[in-house]
Amino acid sequence: MQLELYSHNGELAPVYSTKSSVGIVLATGNLGRRLTNNDEPKNLYISRDGGMNWRSVKPGVFIYEIGDHGSIIVIAAKNKAVKEVEFSWDEGLTWEKVQISE
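RE: above sequence
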């Protein structure tokens, strides 16, 4: 698995965690021997153990935020207008959608 550490012009979200969400790390990347170009398919990945193990969460490119010591994770599609965001109360195991705009 290859993860985005830096993205030219901010097109992709880099690896992200917070001090208060111990063990939870979110990242954009792809499977394969090398990191693919930004315009090629990517996935959202999550680690719940500080980066030792990773799981693909959703296909696509997202922005993300971790809140309340990791008890909520919020994601939204990156680089396009959105009417809804998705959130998880269980460290990325299940996701729910909420409409935020008409």
